[in-house]
C-alpha cells in the first residue's frame, strides 16, 4: 500500500471512529411510534421521541413536581378561571420561527380544533387563549380545571412550529418541526427515527450527543442482545426476567422507576360492527373473563413479581386508588355462572396484542386461564401502531393495551371513558361518568376529587369497558459508559446532562 493510500485509509478510520464515539446515542424502543404529530399521537414510544424533539410549556421532576420549560412562571386568577403564563424569550423553532405567545395561541387552537386531534378532551376546559403580551399568554377557562398544568406538561403542552403546521397540515407527522434540543432528520417506518442536535436551542450545552437514533425492536431478547453487542447504547422496557442478568453484568447499567400507568384489555362496546358480540354487548361476559384471570399469578409467572396486580386505572399504592374495591381473587366457578346467566355455555373472543414476546406470553397465560371458564381466546399478534389504528377504526373485539400514566389522575381515565374522550376506542358512554369526571376537574381539593373518581370507578367496574390487569415498573438497561441518566416515573428518557464515555 502506498503512503498516500495508507494515509487516506487511516484518516477514514479515524473519521469513522470519531463519528461513532460519544456523538451518537442509539436507543432501542419496544415499538415503532405512531404519527410524529403531538396532536395526532398516542403511543408511549412516541412520547419518548417527543421528549427530545419538542419542548413543552411545563415539565416535571422525578418527584412529579411541575417545573418551568417554555413557560418560565404561571399564575392562576383568584377564581381559578384564568391562567397566565410568562414565556421564554430565547426559544426558537427548528425552522427559525420564533417562539412567543402567538405560537402558543396557534398550538392550543390547533389542538382544540384539528379534526384528528386527540388533545381535545385534555383541553376541553379552555374556552379561549390569548397573547396578552409578546411573551405572555392567558388561558380563559369555561370552568376551573385542576388538571390543566398537568396537561400542559405533556403532549397538549408540546409546541409545534405554527409556520410548519400551517404549511404541512397533517403531513407534519412525517416531518415534525418543534423547538426541542434535537431536530428531526429522517424516519424509516419500522426501522429508525433519527434526530440531530439543534445548535440554537436555549439549553444546547446540556445535551451531549450529536445524533439520537431510535430503533424499534419489539423482541425483548433481540433488543437486549443488541445492547450487549454494542449495537445499542440504551433500551427502554427491559423484560423483568432479564433484570437480574443485567444487574450482574459489569458492562451494563440497570435503572428502574414505578410507573404511573396501567395495562389492561380494552373492549369494543360500541365502536362499529365488531362490537356486536356477547363480549361487547353483555357486561356479564366481560366480568366472567375478569374473574377467570388470576392477576397475582400473572405477576409472578410473566413478570417475575416485578409488577403490581391491578383492577383500576390507578395502582393500589396510589392515593387515588379506591381501597373499598380491591383486586378480586380468581373465581372460575363464578365466571362460568355468569356465562350461564348470559345464556352461554362458552364463548370465543379475539383479542389483539402487541407482537412482542412479553405481551404475547401474558396473553397466552390469560388464554389458558380463560379456557378453564369456557372462554376461548384467539390471540391476534399485531404491530403496535397498527393495533392502535385498528382500535380507533373499531376493527377489534378486545385489545391488550396499556397507558404509561400521567402525573394527574385525570390523565389515566378521562380521555378513555368519557363519551367524547380522545382515546375512547371502546366508545363506552355514560352521562353519569362524564359528569363525575368533569366534576373532578373542577376542584383542587383531593378529597372531593377522589370521591368523584371512586364513584366513577364503581360504575366502570360494573360496565368494564377496560379490564385492568396490572401496573408495571419501568426498567431500563444501558451500556455502563452511559452516565447521568435519571429514571422518571413517567417512563420518559430525558437526556440533559447524560454523557457517553
User: C-alpha Rg, in Å?
Assistant: 24 Å
Which stretches are low in confidence, meaning pLDDT under 50 for 5 or more residues running? Answer: 1-22
CATH class of the largest domain: Alpha Beta
CATH architecture of the largest domain: Roll
User: Given the helix and strand composition, which structural class is it?
Assistant: alpha+beta
Shape: globular
The biggest sheet amounts to: 7 strands, mixed
**CATH fold assignment of the largest domain:** Dipeptide-binding Protein, domain 3
Question: Could you say how many structural domains there are in total?
Answer: 3
β content, as a range?
15-25%
**Tally of helical runs:** 16
What would your notes on this structure say?
- The protein is α+β, with helices and mostly antiparallel strands.
- It has 3 domains: 22-30 and 180-258 and 475-500, 3-Layer(aba) Sandwich (D-Maltodextrin-Binding Protein, domain 2), CATH 3.40.190; 55-168, Dipeptide-binding Protein, domain 1, CATH 3.90.76.10; 262-471, Dipeptide-binding Protein, domain 3 (Roll), CATH 3.10.105.
- The protein is 32% helix and 23% strand.
- The chain is built from 16 helices and 21 strands.
- It has a 7-stranded mixed β-sheet, with helices on both faces. Strands 14-18-13-17-15-16 form a 6-stranded mixed β-sheet. Strands 4-5-7-6 form a 4-stranded antiparallel β-sheet, covered by helices on one side.
- Strand 8 and strand 9 (192-197) form a beta hairpin.
- Helix 10 (295-303) packs antiparallel against helix 12.
- The longest helix is centred in the N-terminal third of the chain and has 18 residues, at 3-20.
- It is globular.
- Residues 1-22 have low confidence and may be disordered.
Amino acid at each position: 500500500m502506498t503512503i498516500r493510500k495508507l494515509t487516506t485509509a487511516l484518516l477514514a478510520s479515524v473519521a469513522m471512529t470519531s463519528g461513532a464515539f460519544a456523538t451518537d446515542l442509539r436507543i432501542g424502543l419496544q415499538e415503532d411510534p405512531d404519527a410524529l404529530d403531538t396532536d395526532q399521537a398516542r403511543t408511549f414510544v412516541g412520547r419518548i421521541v417527543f421528549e427530545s424533539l419538542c419542548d413543552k410549556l411545563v415539565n416535571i421532576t422525578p418527584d412529579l413536581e411541575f417545573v418551568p420549560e417554555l413557560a418560565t412562571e404561571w399564575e392562576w386568577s383568584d377564581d381559578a378561571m384564568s391562567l397566565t403564563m410568562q414565556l421564554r424569550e430565547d426559544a426558537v423553532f427548528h425552522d427559525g420561527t420564533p417562539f412567543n405567545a402567538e405560537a402558543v395561541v396557534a398550538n392550543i387552537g390547533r389542538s382544540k380544533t384539528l379534526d384528528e386531534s386527540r388533545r381535545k378532551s385534555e383541553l376541553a376546559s379552555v374556552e379561549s387563549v390569548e397573547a396578552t403580551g409578546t411573551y405572555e399568554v392567558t388561558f380563559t377557562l369555561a370552568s376551573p380545571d385542576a388538571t390543566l398544568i398537568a396537561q400542559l406538561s405533556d403532549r397538549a403542552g408540546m409546541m409545534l412550529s405554527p409556520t410548519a403546521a400551517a404549511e404541512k397540515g397533517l403531513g407534519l407527522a412525517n416531518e415534525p418541526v418543534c423547538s426541542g434540543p434535537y431536530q428531526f432528520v429522517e424516519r424509516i417506518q419500522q426501522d429508525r427515527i433519527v434526530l440531530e442536535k439543534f445548535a440554537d436551542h436555549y439549553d444546547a450545552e446540556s445535551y451531549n450527543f450529536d445524533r439520537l437514533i431510535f430503533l424499534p425492536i419489539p423482541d425483548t431478547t433481540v433488543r437486549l442482545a443488541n445492547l450487549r453487542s454494542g449495537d445499542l447504547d440504551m433500551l427502554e422496557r427491559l423484560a423483568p426476567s432479564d433484570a437480574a442478568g443485567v444487574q450482574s453484568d459489569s458492562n451494563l447499567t440497570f435503572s428502574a422507576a414505578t410507573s404511573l400507568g396501567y395495562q389492561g384489555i380494552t373492549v369494543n362496546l360500541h365502536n362499529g360492527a365488531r362490537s356486536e358480540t356477547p363480549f361487547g354487548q353483555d357486561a356479564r361476559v366481560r366480568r366472567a373473563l375478569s374473574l377467570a384471570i388470576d392477576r397475582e399469578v400473572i405477576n409472578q409467572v410473566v413478570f417475575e413479581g416485578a409488577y403490581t396486580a391491578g383492577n383500576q386505572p390507578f395502582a393500589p399504592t396510589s392515593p387515588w386508588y379506591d381501597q373499598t374495591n380491591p383486586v378480586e381473587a380468581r373465581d372460575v366457578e363464578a365466571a362460568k355462572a355468569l356465562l350461564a346467566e348470559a345464556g352461554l355455555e362458552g364463548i370465543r373472543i379475539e383479542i389483539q396484542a402487541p407482537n412482542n414476546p412479553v405481551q404475547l406470553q401474558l396473553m397466552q397465560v390469560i388464554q389458558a386461564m380463560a379456557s378453564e371458564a369456557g372462554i376461548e381466546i384467539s390471540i391476534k399478534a399485531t404491530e403496535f401502531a397498527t393495533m392502535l389504528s385498528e382500535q380507533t377504526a373499531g376493527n377489534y373485539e378486545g385489545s391488550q393495551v396499556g397507558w404509561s400514566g400521567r402525573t394527574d389522575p385525570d390523565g389515566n381515565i378521562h380521555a378513555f371513558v368519557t363519551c367524547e374522550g380522545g382515546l375512547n376506542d371502546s366508545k363506552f358512554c355514560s352521562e353519569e361518568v362524564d359528569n363525575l369526571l368533569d366534576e373532578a376537574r373542577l376542584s383542587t381539593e383531593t378529597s372531593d376529587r377522589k370521591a368523584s373518581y371512586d364513584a366513577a370507578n364503581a360504575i366502570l367496574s360494573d360496565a368494564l369497558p377496560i379490564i385492568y390487569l396490572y401496573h408495571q415498573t419501568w426498567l431500563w438497561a444501558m451500556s455502563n459508559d452511559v452516565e447521568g441518566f435519571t429514571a422518571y416515573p413517567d417512563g420518559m428518557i430525558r437526556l440533559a446532562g447524560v454523557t457517553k464515555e
